[in-house]
Amino acid sequence: MWPRLDFDHIGATASVVLSGKYIYLLDNQGICVVIEPGRTFKQVAYNRMDMLLQHPWPVGTRERTPSAPIFAGKDIFIRGEKYLYCIGAEK
């Protein structure tokens, strides 16, 4: 994970999410690490959303993801600072 850390940005979302048999950890730069619960660390997936936004300030062009993901059935919803993303199987 590569969170943005400074005086007004937390590094990771407020909540770690358990959905199905996996744990989802999301940072504030659109990176999600998926792990299996258990005594030993086992990473299942590493995902990164690369939506770039034009901000009025010179640093940090990647859209921030300041909230925990929400699950509805097999779909994952992630709120960015400008867009709402839905990740799921094609329908």
Describe this structure as you would to a colleague:
By secondary structure, the protein is mainly β. The chain has one domain (17-87). Helices cover 0% and strands 34% of the residues. The chain has no helices and 7 strands. The protein has strands at residues 17-19, 22-26, 31-35, 43-48, 70-72, 75-79, 84-87. A hairpin with a 2-residue loop joins β1 (17-19) and β2. It is globular and about 45 Å long. The mean pLDDT is 80.
| Widest beta sheet: strand line-up | 1-2-3-4
The overall pLDDT average reads 80
Q: How far is the N terminus from the C terminus?
A: 30 Å
Question: What are the secondary-structure elements, in order, as H or E?
Answer: EEEEEEE
Helical content class: under 10%
Beta fraction of the residues? 25-35%
Q: Based on DSSP secondary structure assignment, what is the total number of beta strands?
A: 7
Please compute the radius of gyration using only Cα atoms.
14 Å
List the helices and strands and how they pair.
Blueprint: E1 17-19, E2 22-26, E3 31-35, E4 43-48, E5 70-72, E6 75-79, E7 84-87
Antiparallel strand pairs: 1-2, 2-3, 3-4, 5-6, 6-7
Write a compact overview of the structure shown.
The chain is globular, with a radius of gyration of 14 Å.
Highlighted features:
single chain, mainly beta, 3-stranded antiparallel β-sheet, 7 strands, globular
